[in-house]
Specification:
With about 525 residues, the protein is mostly helical. It contains 21 helices and 4 strands. Strand 2 and strand 3 form a beta hairpin.
Length: about 525
């Protein structure tokens, strides 16, 4: 018995995602409330329409729990890092120090919400830029909602070649792109070219948020310079070394940003007093007391540690190989639906390498930062216990939502619902499917929370569809992973990371609504360009 792609089976596959979006945006439910409903719908459709038995459902749910654990560890350790800084009043020091270093407030927002996130995405990824960036932006006076929205945008352009090219490597492996071949570099070129435009858009939209046309005029030179370094650098290096094509430009952009702050145009104090994203005057309440003997460098100690640890562990191959050999994984048997959708057996499913995982770097940075702050007397009595207690307390509700979302994505994949969604679109549209090719990548990241997972999920499908349509695969594969990168800005699990560390858990629907208005048109625009070049031209 074979699974037919009909409107009914397609609609049933789309239903959980439609319910999730509707509940979060229309009814303003938080992800903690919406995720269980979407999961229940997935369970029902998976068992009734897609004929997955309890054995398969239980297996995919177990895979979901296991896959969610590394994400939960990132949430907890990122919140712990935030709590450590909060206990030491380091964020007030960062706000004062960075304001002096970058007196132009717009440049300061771009620095803390775009450039620093790009750097973190280059070395860590997995939502760390959002979890860390939100409290840092709040520290310089950005409203909590925008403190989540801005880093979601800021990290997205680096989501394909960031994390030392992890998502790109997954696409190449899944789609059969051999390293060094013309198709390999052509697909990388397409992805990097699309992300160059998205990087420019990111800088401009952050300026627009800050102060609309006036801020765009003021920030345009800086945005153009940063885009040339980041997006342009990635474009060039994608043809040389995909592993470092994001990391190197991200590091250079940090240095250049500080030099920009010395330019005549940006070295004077400047701000838009009625900026809608900033907390001003009485609304911001009285300035907190903070340790007057703490310098800006000392306030940033945990973040310096985070950066140095990550760079050493992930770029020095002998260290990477040694620490990476310690992995934890579980075996899962083969399962299949009554329609013949097979999930292959695995002896070491999704192995977790704790010593090279982002959560380990966050934990070490938080603990050493705590010790450092405490040795200088900046942690109050009972502050250590408070930091750990609050981090656990803040992790629990968001953790439940993440687990539900990941289980949902695993069951959808294991029962065939995910592939049916994509196949249904391709079957109806024919070569017009190219318009939605980037959207498929976006959808994959929305569902799984990871561009890497999106590429694994849809990479081979996109390559096969290109062959059926008689068009070159590299542009479609480039659009797939670029769409997946943009999709990192609308991933519910990443949004939860931000709302949790920003202290606005439950506002995920508001954030998602804003992000969809930005990302969906971008994905469709990319698809239209792709269609025009490959079909019309």
């Amino acid at each position: 018995m074979e699974l037919e792609v009909t409107f009914f089976t397609w609609f049933m596959a789309v239903l959980p995602i439609l319910a999730l979006i509707l509940l979060m945006i229309k009814f303003q439910w938080g992800a903690t409330e919406a995720a269980p409903v979407a999961l229940i719908i997935t369970l029902i459709t998976g068992m009734t329409v897609y004929k997955g038995d309890l054995y398969l459902i239980a297996g995919e749910a177990a895979k979901g729990v296991w896959t969610a654990i590394p994400i939960l560890l990132i949430i907890w350790t990122a919140i712990l890092l935030y709590q450590v800084g909060d206990q030491a009043k380091a964020f007030q020091v960062i706000k004062n120090g960075m304001s002096k270093l970058l007196p132009n407030e717009l440049l300061l927002v771009l620095a803390m919400g775009w450039i620093f996130e790009s750097f973190l995405q280059g070395i860590t990824g997995f939502g760390v830029p959002v979890a860390v960036g939100a409290p840092l932006l709040m520290g310089i006076g950005v409203r909590p909602m925008y403190a989540v929205i801005i880093p979601l945008l800021g990290q997205a352009w680096g989501n394909t070649f960031g994390t030392l090219g992890a998502a790109w490597d997954a696409l190449a492996s899944t789609a059969g792109l051999s390293v060094g071949t013309p198709d390999y570099y052509l697909a990388a070129l397409w992805a990097a070219a699309i992300l160059l435009v998205w990087d420019l858009f990111t800088g401009l939209i952050i300026c627009w948020f800050y102060g609309k046309g006036e801020a765009i005029r003021k920030g345009l030179p800086a945005v153009l310079i940063m885009t040339i370094i980041q997006g342009g650098g990635e474009l060039v290096l994608s043809q040389v070394n995909t592993t470092l094509s994001n990391f190197i430009p991200a590091v250079i952009s940090l240095v250049v940003l500080l030099l920009l702050g010395r330019m005549k145009m940006y070295r004077e104090e400047w701000s838009i007093k009625d900026s809608s994203i900033m907390i001003r005057g009485e609304e911001g309440a009285a300035e907190e007391d903070y340790p007057r003997d703490m310098t800006l460098v000392q306030a940033f100690v945990p973040y310096f540690l985070l950066s140095v640890l990550t760079i050493i562990v992930l770029t020095v191959k002998p260290i990477t190989n040694f620490l990476g050999q310690f992995t934890i994984g579980f075996s899962f048997p083969e399962t299949s639906t009554a329609y013949g959708i097979v999930n292959e057996a695995s002896t070491n499913y999704s192995p977790f390498a704790p010593f090279t995982h982002a959560s380990m770097f966050l934990l070490i940075a938080a603990v050493i930062g705590l010790i450092y702050y405490k040795s200088h007397g900046w942690i109050p009595q009972g502050g250590t216990k408070t930091a750990f207690a609050k981090s656990i307390q803040m992790t629990m509700p968001s953790g439940m939502a993440v687990v539900g979302l990941v289980i949902m994505s695993k069951i959808m994949g294991g029962t065939g619902q995910t592939v049916v969604m994509a196949q249904g679109i391709a079957a109806v549209l024919g070569n017009k499917y190219l318009i939605l090719a980037p959207f498929i990548g976006l959808l994959g990241t929305f569902m799984t929370g990871s561009n890497l997972s999106s590429n694994i999920l849809f990479g081979d499908f996109q390559a096969s569809t290109a062959q059926l349509l008689g068009v070159n695969a590299p542009p479609i594969l480039g659009a797939q992973t670029a769409g997946g990168a943009i999709g990192a800005a609308v991933s519910p699990s990443k949004i939860i990371l931000g709302t949790t560390t920003a202290g606005i858990l439950g506002k995920e629907g508001e954030v998602l609504k804003t992000m969809l208005l930005l990302t969906m048109p971008a994905a469709i625009a990319i698809g239209l360009v792709l269609f025009g070049i490959l079909v019309i031209a």
